[in-house]
Design goal:
Elements lengths: L1 E6 L9 H15 L2 E8 L17 E6 L2 E6 L9 H21 L5 E6 L2 H13 L3 E6 L5 H5 L8 H16 L2 E4 L2 H10 L5 E3 L21 E8 L6 H7 L7 E8 L3 H10 L5 E3 L5 H7 L5 E5 L11 H6 L5 E4 L2 H9 L3 E3 L5 H12 L3 H18 L2 H10 L4
Parallel strand pairs: 1-2, 1-5, 2-4, 5-6, 6-7, 7-8, 9-10, 9-12, 10-11, 12-13, 13-14
Antiparallel strand pairs: 3-4
Helix pairs in contact: 2-3, 3-5, 7-8
Length: 394
C-alpha cells in the first residue's frame, strides 16, 4: 500500500471547512488503497484553546478512521494582537520544521496552503529531501489578506508573503487549486506548472433527499460555519431586514464574532434572528433537516475563493442564497442552485429575501429535490479523486 502524508493546520475534531476538507481528502485516499498519515497541531480551533484531551501534551499520535494523525505542540491563539498570532504560528512552524527534517517522510506529501508560513516550511524541507510535493491551495494569499484588509498593500509583510507564495508555487511538483481562479493565478506566475482543479465536494453518503419541508411554518434560512472576518455574519445580522416577512434567520457556529452576535440577536427580537452555537457536524445536519435555505455570505469578493458551503449544502438539497461574488456566484447560477445577491449590497440582499418570503413551500420542496439531484451528479467527490488518481496526481 502506497504511503502519502498530508500536512495541514487544521484537522478534526477541529471544526470548519478547512478541517472537513482535509479529512475528506484523507479518507478518500485511504479508501483508494493509500496508507494516509496527517501532521497537524494539537486540536485548538476555532476557540484558540487546546481541547481538553490535548492539554498538557507535547505531541499526540492517534488513529481516526484508519488515518494516522500526528499532532504537534502549538501555542494556540485567536487573539487580535498581531504579535501573539505570530508567536502562535511560529510555535507550530518550529515543531513542524524539526519533525520534517529528522523524521522519515513518505515519498509523496500533500501540503495545505494557506497558511503561507507553514506551507513554506513544509515545501522548503520536503524539496531538500526530494519528495513529490502536492500543494493544495484553498485560498490565494496574500491576495485574500489584501482584499480583507488584513494586510496592507506594499508593506513589508505583504512583500514577504509574496516571496513565500512564489517560492512554494515554484518548488511544488504540482498544484491542486480549489477554483479556476487559483489555477489562473498560478499560471500567471509559472505558466508551465502542472495544475489540477480540486473542488471541496462533500461526502455525505446520502442517496435520497432527507429534508422535510414544513407547511404553515416560516421559511427558515440558516448560516452554519465559522464566525470570522471573511464571512461577515455580524454585519449580515445588523443589516438584514426580516421585519414583516415570513422568514427566519438561524445562525450556527463559533468564532471571533460570537459574543457580538449573541448580544445583537438578544436585542433584536423583532428581526427573527436565532443563534444556536456550534454543533457537531452530524448533529447539525440532523437539526437542519426541517430548514429551507442556506445563506452563504462573504464580507467582500475574494479572488480565488469558492466557499465550500455551496457544495456542502447543495449536496444535501438546500437551495443557496449566495452573497459572496466571484467564482462561487458563477457556480450557483450555472447549476441553478438558488439565488445570488451582489456581494456587499444589502439592499439587493433584502430584495432577494422579500422574493424568497413569497415562495410557497411546495415550490421550495421542488427546488430542494432538483438541487439534490443536480448536486449528486455534479459534486461527486469519489469521481473527482479517482480522476486525479488516474492522472497520477497522487
Amino acid at each position: 500500500m502506497e504511503e502519502i502524508l498530508i500536512i495541514s493546520n487544521y484537522y478534526p475534531p477541529e471544526k470548519g471547512a478547512a478541517a472537513n476538507r482535509i479529512e475528506q481528502l484523507a479518507l478518500k485516499l485511504n479508501q483508494n488503497k493509500y496508507n494516509v498519515s496527517v501532521i497537524c497541531p494539537l486540536g485548538n480551533y476555532p476557540k484558540g484553546k487546546l481541547f481538553d484531551e490535548y492539554k498538557g501534551k507535547f505531541s499526540v499520535t492517534e488513529n481516526r478512521d484508519g488515518i494516522t494523525v500526528k499532532r504537534l505542540w502549538i501555542y494556540p491563539s485567536v487573539s487580535k494582537n498581531l504579535l501573539v498570532r505570530i508567536i502562535s504560528v511560529l510555535s507550530f512552524s518550529a515543531m513542524l520544521f524539526f519533525y520534517l527534517l529528522f523524521k522519515k517522510i513518505p515519498k509523496k506529501v500533500i501540503v495545505q496552503s494557506p497558511p503561507l508560513l507553514l506551507s513554506f516550511i513544509s515545501v522548503f524541507v520536503l524539496s531538500l529531501k526530494n519528495k513529490k510535493i502536492i500543494l493544495n491551495i484553498s485560498d490565494l494569499w496574500p491576495i485574500a489578506a489584501i482584499e480583507l484588509n488584513a494586510l496592507k498593500k506594499d508593506s513589508f509583510s505583504h512583500k514577504f508573503s509574496l516571496f513565500l507564495e512564489r517560492y512554494i508555487y515554484k518548488k511544488a511538483t504540482l498544484i491542486l487549486g480549489q477554483s479556476n481562479e487559483i489555477i489562473t493565478h498560478v499560471h500567471t506566475l509559472f505558466s508551465d506548472k502542472k495544475c489540477y482543479l480540486y473542488r471541496n465536494f462533500p461526502d455525505h453518503n446520502v442517496s435520497e433527499i432527507e429534508l422535510k419541508t414544513e407547511e404553515n411554518q416560516p421559511i427558515k434560512i440558516f448560516y452554519a460555519g465559522l464566525l470570522g472576518i471573511a464571512q461577515g455574519v455580524f454585519e449580515l445580522c445588523q443589516k438584514i431586514d426580516l421585519k414583516g416577512l415570513n422568514v427566519e434567520l438561524h445562525i450556527f457556529g463559533d468564532g471571533a464574532e460570537k459574543t457580538q452576535l449573541e448580544t445583537l440577536i438578544s436585542s433584536e427580537k423583532e428581526q427573527r434572528l436565532f443563534f444556536h452555537g456550534m454543533l457537531d457536524r452530524t448533529e447539525l445536519h440532523q437539526q437542519l433537516k426541517s430548514f429551507d435555505i442556506a445563506i452563504v455570505p462573504l464580507k467582500t469578493r475574494i479572488y480565488g475563493s469558492v466557499p465550500s458551503k455551496i457544495f456542502e449544502y447543495g449536496s444535501l438539497g438546500f437551495p443557496i442564497l449566495y452573497f459572496g461574488g466571484g467564482e462561487g456566484e458563477t457556480i450557483v447560477i450555472e447549476n441553478n442552485l438558488g439565488w445570488v445577491s451582489a456581494v456587499g449590497n444589502y439592499n439587493d440582499l433584502n430584495e432577494k429575501i422579500k422574493i424568497i418570503s413569497s415562495v410557497k413551500k411546495a415550490e421550495l420542496d421542488l427546488m430542494k429535490r432538483q438541487i439534490f439531484e443536480k448536486s449528486q451528479r455534479e459534486f461527486d467527490l469519489d469521481n473527482q479523486v479517482k480522476n486525479l488518481i488516474e492522472k497520477e496526481v497522487f
